[in-house]
Write a structure and sequence with these properties.
Elements (H helix, E strand, L loop, with lengths): L2 H31 L5 H22 L7 H25 L5 H8 L2 H8 L4 H4 L3 H18 L2 H5 L3 H23 L9 H22 L13 H26 L4 H4 L2 H17 L5 H17 L1 H7 L1
Length: about 300
């Protein structure tokens, strides 16, 4: 009789490990993948393989496709989140470090409040949320003004920095689009309907930007293959499925703490394994951004206390 609670606790620990550390490590996995794959070929392969596996599983189980209205939402949200979001981050990591990208992506909760217009009355009447927004965006400003960006920064690096910020916006817009639009389909079916169109669009982008014409699998080294494999197995399966399972097990306020941990993990792994460094101004920006995110979540924490 005591085995079930123990198993449940172990599963919870494993799931939180995945969304804390696996998601945080995917930024470095992208950096490794880019050592052999162009960005849109890298993410396109990741989405295609993961999407095919999920769709095949759903078909074997006899699941039906979502109705047309919901299917279109899944397709559009997949393009926004996976191409405009993750795909553009992969492009940007050619010019900025994985740690820098992770810090900028950590601003997603702040963008969510700004873009979720129907709840503005609730958000902007709360002192914690207002303070969190002001502090969080101050952290972004400090990060952008850090010594590294002033002294050693190139024009393309600055563009890449703003592209990552914009990718966080695209991810939030895609998330808002499918909010409460699950329908009768399973999470796996909906995910495959997001992944496969995103893979097709990434392929088209790779075609028109010349990635495909200049690419050869022969030139892909071991690190790049391991990066792609990690992104598929751990990023697209383990971490995401853990997140979906945790939603039914624990309060969202607790689950959302991965937002604080992911950039710290990414920065540490980038320093440990890829010789990436941040200057004091960027670290200060990270700390201030995280303080802002904590504050905007205070109302939710109080609900679940």
């Amino acid at each position: 009789m005591k085995q079930k609670p123990l198993l449940q606790r172990l599963l919870l620990l494993f799931a939180f490990f995945n969304i804390y550390f696996i998601w945080g490590s995917t930024y470095l996995a992208v950096a490794f993948g880019l050592k052999g794959f162009p960005p849109f070929i890298l993410v396109g392969l990741r989405y295609f393989i993961a999407g095919i596996v999920l769709l095949a599983y759903c078909i074997v189980k006899g699941e039906k496709f979502p109705p047309q209205k919901l299917l279109l939402k899944q397709v559009l949200s997949g393009i926004l989140m996976l191409v405009g979001g993750t795909g553009m981050i992969a492009w940007a990591e050619q010019y900025i470090s994985s740690g820098q990208a992770a810090i900028l992506v950590a601003t997603e909760p702040l963008w969510f409040l700004v873009l979720d217009r129907k709840n503005w009355t609730v958000y902007f009447s709360n002192k914690y949320i207002l303070a969190g927004l002001l502090i969080g965006f101050s952290g972004i400003f400090l990060f952008l003004k850090a010594d590294h960006l002033q002294v050693n920064h190139s024009a393309i690096g600055l563009i890449a920095t703003f592209v990552v910020l914009l990718s966080a916006v695209w991810w939030v817009l895609g998330s808002l689009l499918i909010n409460n639009s699950k329908g009768e389909s399973s999470v796996m079916m909906n995910s495959s309907m997001q992944l496969l169109p995103a893979a097709v669009l990434c392929g088209l982008i790779a075609l028109f930007t010349g990635e495909i014409s200049s690419f050869s699998f022969v030139n892909v080294g071991g690190q790049a293959w391991l990066g792609l494999l990690f992104l598929i197995v751990f990023g697209s399966f383990a971490a995401y499925l853990s997140f979906v399972w945790l939603i039914s097990q624990r309060p969202l306020a607790l689950i959302s703490t991965h937002t604080y941990v992911n950039p710290v993990v990414a920065v540490f792994l980038g320093w440990l394994l890829a010789n990436e460094h941040l200057v004091k101004g960027q670290i200060l920006g990270l700390v201030i951004i995280l303080i802002g995110i904590v504050l905007v979540n205070v109302p939710e924490y109080r609900k679940t206390a």
